[in-house]
Specification:
Helices cover 33% and strands 22% of the residues. The strands form five sheets. The chain has a six-stranded parallel sheet with strand order 2-1-3-4-5-6, with helices on both faces. The longest helix has 24 residues. The structure holds iron/sulfur cluster.
């Protein structure tokens, strides 16, 4: 047996999927994957740079691991977005780091680890994917035996002025549909109940060939892909994140036609002010966004809508913030992720004065949070008496006589039950609405 490896994943679903892919490669190469850093020969941090001070967080974690190991130091590697962006500068910041592996070098991780351990030198690879590399993940490495992440597109071409992702993950590259469909079919055969088609912007999906999509109707390659994935018979299909400019109403049509395409869309608005949207370089105006929301809200199926908002973008006035509040009122989101703007070095927005004070950002944050909480309360209450389909994921964190899972509209649902139900789909009648979850009872047949 080769060395033992522990991978710690920080950040988004794409990072979770990258760790699953890296673990598959490592196990194939004979390495042992372990669940803690306590005695692993190699500790790899898979990093995220979307939040501020991402590298500081990694250095802190490295310090904690070193302290806990008390002199018996493992080989330490940093992979993912921070590795891609900081490159060899990471070695200067921390002499404990032996290995730096960029976002598209994951498949080379086994040989890179071997080189780092054999040569005792610092090893770096921030190169691109090699032609013919396939997205391959073994089920043993997946984060759940019932829900699987299936990346369909990597990278981003949008270059929003505040965002580092196009620099850390490179340009958009879509997987060929045949590969995606084979993966979903095999997941279904292996008992998976739900797939999440993931990517920075899933609806910008544009593969180099249409292989696998022949015979499926659709106005865009993504809506064709949705219909093709639905035809695999997978029980529940979710997708995230959608980019507003590329959100074609045909996506709503596909959801209406196929019950296994889940009734949930995450469509980040970021701001309700045209001036701020222009400064963010989002590529759409408020009215364009609202047209997409209209298509979603007027669907024959009730489709849940969630979003992201950044408050306190450079120069955001209180009137512009009010425009965001009015957009949130119009959209009636089922859920909202609110972020305070913070500068990412290297992005175009970092050249703008971050001139909304911290105090003002905090005040706008809580105003919006309370506003959304009230709207959400009404939406959640409207579920009382309704039946929702839930995939049971495990015991509720708050009570061991309750189970928890997500509905097709991606709400957290808790209900009395036991562990024999895990992995099953159940029908739950909602009896109570809480701030961020619903409570109910299993429907008796
Ligand atoms: S769409 Fe904009 S915010 Fe989203 S990943 Fe791309 S650049 Fe970043």
């Amino acid at each position: 047996m080769k060395a033992s490896i522990y991978i710690e994943t920080l950040g988004c679903q794409m990072n979770v999927a990258d760790s699953e892919r890296a673990s598959t490669k490592l196990r194939e190469a004979g390495y042992e994957l372990v669940g803690s850093s306590e005695s692993a020969d190699v500790v790899i941090f898979n990093t995220c740079s979307v939040r501020a001070r991402a590298s500081q967080k990694v250095f802190n974690r490295i310090g904690e691991v070193r302290k806990a190991r008390n002199g018996n130091e493992p080989t330490i590697g940093v992979m993912g977005c921070v590795a891609q962006l900081e490159g060899s500068a990471l070695f200067d910041h921390s002499s404990s780091i032996n290995l730096v592996v960029g976002t598209t070098a994951t498949d080379r991780l086994p040989s890179l680890i071997e080189s780092a351990r054999e040569s005792q030198r610092q090893i770096i690879d921030v190169g691109g994917r090699v032609d013919g590399e396939l997205w391959k993940v073994s089920n043993v490495e997946r984060h759940s035996p019932y829900v699987a992440f299936v990346p369909i597109i990597e990278g981003c071409n949008k270059f929003c002025s505040y965002c580092i992702v196009p620099f850390s993950r490179g340009r958009e590259q879509s997987r060929v549909a045949t590969e995606i469909l084979d993966e979903v079919r095999s997941l279904r055969e292996d008992g998976y109940k739900e797939v999440h088609l993931i990517g920075q912007n899933v609806n910008s999906y544009r593969p180099l060939t249409s292989a696998g999509l022949e015979g499926f109707s659709g106005t865009t390659p993504f809506s064709k892909l949705l219909r093709a994935v639905a035809a695999t018979g997978m029980n529940r299909i979710k997708f995230t994140t959608s980019f507003p400019r590329d959100f074609h109403p045909d996506i709503v049509a596909a959801i209406e036609e196929n019950k296994n395409l889940c009734n949930w869309v995450h469509l980040p608005a970021q701001s309700g002010s045209d001036r701020v949207l222009r400064a963010m370089r989002r590529g759409y105006k408020r009215e364009d966004y609202l047209r997409r929301v209209d298509a979603i809200k007027s669907s024959r199926r009730r489709i849940a809508l969630t979003s992201d908002i950044i408050i306190g973008f450079p120069g955001e006035t209180s009137e512009e913030f009010e425009e965001t509040i009015s957009l949130v009122a119009q959209c009636q989101y089922d859920g909202l992720y609110i972020f305070k703007y913070s500068e990412r070095p290297g992005t175009p927005a970092s050249g703008l004065a971050d001139n909304v004070s911290n105090r003002e950002k905090s005040s706008r944050f809580s105003t919006l949070e309370i506003f959304q909480k009230n709207l959400q309360g009404v939406i959640y209450k409207s579920y009382i008496g309704r039946e929702v389909n839930v995939l049971v994921e495990g015991e509720s964190a708050k009570s061991n006589s309750d189970m928890t899972g997500h509905s097709t509209c991606h709400k957290v649902i808790n209900f009395p039950g036991d562990m024999t139900m895990v992995g099953q789909e159940v029908s739950v009648t909602i009896t109570e609405a809480k701030a961020n979850s619903l409570y109910g009872v299993i429907k008796k047949n």
